Amino acid sequence: MARMFRVLGFFALVIALMAFAGNMYEFSLLFFFQAAAFFLLGYLNFTERAYLLMFWAYMIVTFLGFTYWTVFEMDLPV
């Protein structure tokens, strides 16, 4: 499971680099932080249960943040 967090870190880094190349600096900064967090957690060697709990906590926070942003912050399309 620790290896999977390092894989998530790799893909977050790839997304961050593509966003940075596309001049989306805030978006790329968010994914650079996620990549660093995933790499750090991947090398801490927690138990599989701890990794699953951290992953589900990450998913809940991400989905709540995405839902908040799309409902309350984005303008309606014209």
What would you say this structure looks like, in words?
- The structure is a single chain.
- This protein has 78 residues and is an all-alpha fold.
- It has one domain.
- 82% of the residues lie in helices and 0% in strands.
- The protein has three helices and no strands.
- It has helices at 2-21, 25-42, 48-73.
- Helix 1 (2-21) runs antiparallel to helix 2 (25-42).
- The longest helix has 26 residues, at 48-73.
- The N and C termini lie far apart (45 Å).
- The mean pLDDT is 95.
Rounded mean pLDDT is 95
H and E order: HHH
Largest sheet: none
- Count of spatially separate domains: 1
The quaternary organization reads as single chain
Helical residue percent band? over 70%
Q: What's the total number of strands? A: 0
Cα distance, first to last residue? 45 Å
